[in-house]
């Protein structure tokens, strides 16, 4: 996590309040906590070690990275048994001795790797692009599989987020790679369901951008990420205005056919559905889905997610007609089929779409059997699934 609290009393310091240890930059709310940490908290033993590692932020990033890798390896252990890394071709990493992970859409014997190898590969590609001053900086390799070209997810995404942050945290605050790394860390924490930690990182990211006068595009990205963390913490009303403003900003800045605008529409529609504002969600998605199909294609994860959420607004709506329920089931059957083919049945999107399909079929069966009470119970229990 970005260090924004006093190391002793956890007082929130934001990005600039309080004071720092002159040697290692550990943060405190004031001299009293700093003295207490030195005398009673063990800082006298750790200070030199933290400084040697590059300072408090770097030391914290290194520690959190190691923890996240261990979690990812353990989570993937059953899937990776007997496999080797497609980058270094070894089962155990030659230096770190870490095991393998796979958190993308690769299937069969493809896609197994060490987080360290994935991080080193991404670092090399970004450095090469920076050296040659390329517009395409290859930064997507920090969160996208080089084989299946799909985004990593879950605890693997979190480990890569920490890997990215520890790689660039030592750069100046104005450095583009450092700013991108902070955003990737926030999204990685969200992917692993560390929502409170993700919120803190994303708030720090947005605050930094505003202070440095970042572009409107980057501000919108940070606002969207922050709003999604509020949603995951159940703060839906707080997020509603943010996502509405992000969508309006994307339309103005990028136009209706841009992928960022379509993703903003999806995020806002998911929240509207969660708030049971089904009519608004349907009005937003109906014109956007044909655009996504034309621009991105039928098998793009964004197109599939938009179609799934639209189907959910149909079967979740208490006023749904029989035709609405049938349309929802047909749509979700098609979406689930495409997703299994493209991403595999174990991918989180495929699992989510299958769940929505089961719910839609239950709602349709209840209506066709005139079991009104069962339909109402089912609708109350359902929640839209999103990207």
From TrEMBL:
SUPFAM superfamilies reported in the protein's UniProt record: HIT/MYND zinc finger-like, TPR-like
InterPro entries: NLR-like (IPR053137), TPR-like_helical_dom_sf (IPR011990), Znf_MYND (IPR002893), Znf_RING/FYVE/PHD (IPR013083)
Domain MYND-type: 6-47
Entry-linked Pfam families: TPR_12, zf-MYND
PROSITE patterns in the cross-refs: ZF_MYND_2 (PS50865)
Entry superkingdom: Eukaryota
Keyword Transferase among record annotations: no
Entry GO MF terms: zinc ion binding
Swiss-Prot/TrEMBL keywords: Metal-binding, Zinc, Zinc-finger
Name of the protein in question: MYND-type domain-containing protein
């Amino acid at each position: 996590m970005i260090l924004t609290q006093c190391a002793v009393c956890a007082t929130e310091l934001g990005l600039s309040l309080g004071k720092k240890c002159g040697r290692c930059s550990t943060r405190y709310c004031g001299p009293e906590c700093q003295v207490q940490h030195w005398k009673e908290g063990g800082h006298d033993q750790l200070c030199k070690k933290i400084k040697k590692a590059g300072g408090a932020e770097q030391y914290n990033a290194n520690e959190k990275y190691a923890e996240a890798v261990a979690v990812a390896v353990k989570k993937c252990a059953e899937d990776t048994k007997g496999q080797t890394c497609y980058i270094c071709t070894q089962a155990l990493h030659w230096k770190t001795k870490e095991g393998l992970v796979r958190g993308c859409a690769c299937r069969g014997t493809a896609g197994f790797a060490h987080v360290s190898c994935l991080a080193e590969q991404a670092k090399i590609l970004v450095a090469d692009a920076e050296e040659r001053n390329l517009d395409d900086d290859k930064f997507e390799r920090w969160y996208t599989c080089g084989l299946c070209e799909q985004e990593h997810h879950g605890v693997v995404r979190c480990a890569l987020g920490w890997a990215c942050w520890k790689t660039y945290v030592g750069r100046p605050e104005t450095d583009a790679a450092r700013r991108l790394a902070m955003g990737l860390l926030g999204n990685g924490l969200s992917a692993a369901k560390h929502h409170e930690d993700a919120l803190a990182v994303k708030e720090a990211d947005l605050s930094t951008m505003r202070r440095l006068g970042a572009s409107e595009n980057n501000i919108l990205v940070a606002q969207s990420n922050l709003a999604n963390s509020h949603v995951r913490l159940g703060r839906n009303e707080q997020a509603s205005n943010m996502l509405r403003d992000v969508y309006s900003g994307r339309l103005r800045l990028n136009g209706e056919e841009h992928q960022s605008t379509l993703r903003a529409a999806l995020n806002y529609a998911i929240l509207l559905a969660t708030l049971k504002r089904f009519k608004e969600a349907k009005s937003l998605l109906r014109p956007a889905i044909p655009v996504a199909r034309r621009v991105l294609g039928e098998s793009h994860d964004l197109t599939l997610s938009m179609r799934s959420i639209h189907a959910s607004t149909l079967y979740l709506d208490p006023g749904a007609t029989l035709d609405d329920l049938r349309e929802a089931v047909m749509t979700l059957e098609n979406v689930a089929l495409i997703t299994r083919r493209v991403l595999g049945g174990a991918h989180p999107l495929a699992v989510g779409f299958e769940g929505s399909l089961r719910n839609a079929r239950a709602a349709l069966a209840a209506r066709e059997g005139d079991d009104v009470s069962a339909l109402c119970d089912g609708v109350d229990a359902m929640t839209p699934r999103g990207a």
